[in-house]
Write a structure and sequence with these properties.
The complex is a heterodimer of chains A (92) and B (136). Chain A has one domain (2-91). In chain A, helix 1 runs antiparallel to helix 2, helix 2 packs antiparallel against helix 3 (61-70) and helix 2 packs antiparallel against helix 4. Chain A starts with a helix and ends in a 12-residue tail after the last helix. Chain A is 75% helix and 0% strand. Chain A is flat and about 50 Å long. Chain A is mainly α. Chain B has one domain. The chains are: A mainly alpha (92), B mainly alpha (136). The interface between A and B is large, with 52 and 60 residues.
Chain lengths: 92, 136
């Protein structure tokens, strides 16, 4: 059963990561890209969790704690220095 | 191993499998929301699903799979840190998005920040949005 769960979640997370990467590539503004990068980080944490749960090891646990602890620094930094450089607002 | 604990193991496995699949579906929901929602605020709404509920479900599944008690405090710490840090980044992104007009005002049902921004702009004599942004 765990192998089936691993397959299903791998497919689902791959689709989700693809969607987030499409939004990073296409996102009209910098903030959209930052938000999609946050989602991509959450998907990475989900993948680490699923790997640990299915294979029953705890090798990535500290990495997961560190990701949840300092993962917000990037978006805060970018959001602080964002500026409106568009010709015409509200085209997002 | 007697059959009773075996069935208990099966139940725990089933519960954690459900948690894993639902937690992964949260990520997929966030991706679909990122792709389909019209502006930054609604995309931020979608992005919180895997960050909070998805992580909770996956950490619970991990704790159930490990069958030990000492791992639960570490999982709780990971989730608490996520709960503490996600609102910070969401606040900063939402604030910058509002100040730089990354939203569709016709989609908002209420905009409580607009009066404050207008008042702050009026007292300082600025109407330019970049000046409002710089003044926090």
């Amino acid at each position: 059963m765990m192998q089936l769960v691993l397959t299903v979640t791998a497919v689902v997370l791959s689709l989700a990561a693809g969607g987030a990467i499409i939004r990073i590539a296409r996102g009209p503004s910098l903030l959209d890209r930052v938000l999609a990068a946050d989602v991509l980080l959450a998907i990475l944490g989900a993948a680490l969790c699923i790997d640990m749960a299915v294979n029953r090891h705890l090798n990535n646990l500290m990495l997961l704690v560190a990701v949840s602890l300092i993962g917000f620094v990037g978006s805060v930094t970018v959001a602080r220095f964002v500026a409106d450089r568009r010709e015409k607002p509200r085209e997002s | 191993m007697n059959p009773e604990t075996l069935s208990g193991d099966t139940v725990i496995d089933a519960v954690s499998a459900v948690f894993l699949v639902v937690g992964a579906l949260m990520s997929l929901a966030a991706a679909v929301g990122l792709l389909r929602f019209p502006d930054l605020m609604t995309r931020m709404h979608a992005a919180t699903k895997p960050q909070v509920l998805g992580l909770f479900l996956l950490l619970s599944a991990l704790g159930l799979q490990m069958r030990t008690w000492w791992v639960w405090p570490v999982l709780v710490v990971a989730w608490i840190f996520q709960l503490l840090t996600v609102p910070v980044s969401a606040h900063m992104v939402g604030r910058a998005g509002y100040r730089t007009k990354h939203l569709h005002p016709e989609l908002l049902s209420t905009d409580e920040l607009e009066a404050v921004v207008q008042q702050a702009a009026g007292t300082r004599g600025f109407t330019d949005d970049d000046e409002v942004t710089d003044r926090r």
